[in-house]
Amino acid sequence: MIRALLLELAHSKGLARWVTSNGMSRRMSRRFVAGEELGDAVAAARACNRAGMMVTLDYLGENVSSAEDAWRACDTYLGIFDRIAREKLDANVSLKLTQLGLDLGEEFCQGLVEEIVARAAGYGNFVRIDMEGSAYTERTIELAKRVRAKNAAVGVVIQSYLHRSEQDVKDLLGIGCRIRLCKGAYKEPPEIAFPEKAEVDANYVQLMQLLLRSGIYHGIATHDPRGIAATREFAAQHGIAKDQFEFQMLYGIRTDLQQELVRNGYRMRIYIPYGRDWFPYFMRRLAERPANVTFFLRNLFRGS
User: Fold this and answer.
1) 3 classed as catalytic
2) What is the CATH number for 65?
3) Does the pLDDT value for residue 229 go beyond 50?
4) DSSP assignment letter at 267
5) pLDDT at position 55 over 90
6) 143 is in which domain, residue-wise?
7) Per the residue annotation, which of 119, 128, 178, 180 is the catalytic one?
8) φ/ψ bin of 217: left (φ > 0), alpha (ψ from -120 to 50), beta (otherwise)
9) Can you tell me whether residue 232 is helix, strand or coil?
10) Is 130 a residue of the active site?
11) DSSP 11-42
């Protein structure tokens, strides 16, 4: 119930304005968000690199309502790749299609994505297309396929809570696409997504096995110790070397597991979000662990 409410509130623009204008809430968001400026994300990325971890940078934002906003986001991503190269960071970039105008037209959005992927490829880098709610799943996958047909420096995210994901994984593996596997953080009806956590977890393990057997380099994104153990065990049993895939985790979550995996020789990538439009992302992180809500609200009203 709490999770569903938080996911619903993530879409509230009025609540977003109130929360993001509160200095205490901005400081609280730093648990999951590196900051509001690129320099904040670069500093966090540099610290991760020093700790032996790769990163992916994400400029927060979604569902833009004008072409100008989409172009602005595109220019920001081009600048991120320039900055990564200049700073010599071990980092790539994730982006959301609705931030690049998917709601305004697929052809328009694809043109912007192709420009960003071309900039990434010019630096020998890589773009990951994030997955959003199920209303965008089909369009996201098809657009990713079209972009990848022109430039292989792009991959996509698949969510294990969707019933369709096994077929999507098989289709994407058929064209050699790199996949980031996660569980999913949006509110979805049971006819689209598995309603029980145990079902989501089981499907995650099944999809992970498909990915690791493919021989393509993928990202296994989870903070669940059981999912991590299942991945390590499957890789060891099938002779899959530690450098043939990577684990991925979110900035500020389970740093103990991040460090343990690095110590044990696994490749680890940290997803580092930044930007002023952090409210929806922050609410989805609270929804994943509702116990954080009490702590957040106590500090929010104390600082008001």
Assistant:
1) no
2) 3.20.20.220
3) yes
4) -
5) yes
6) 34-277
7) 180
8) beta
9) helix
10) yes
11) T-HHHHHHHHT-HHHHHHHTTT---SSHHHHH
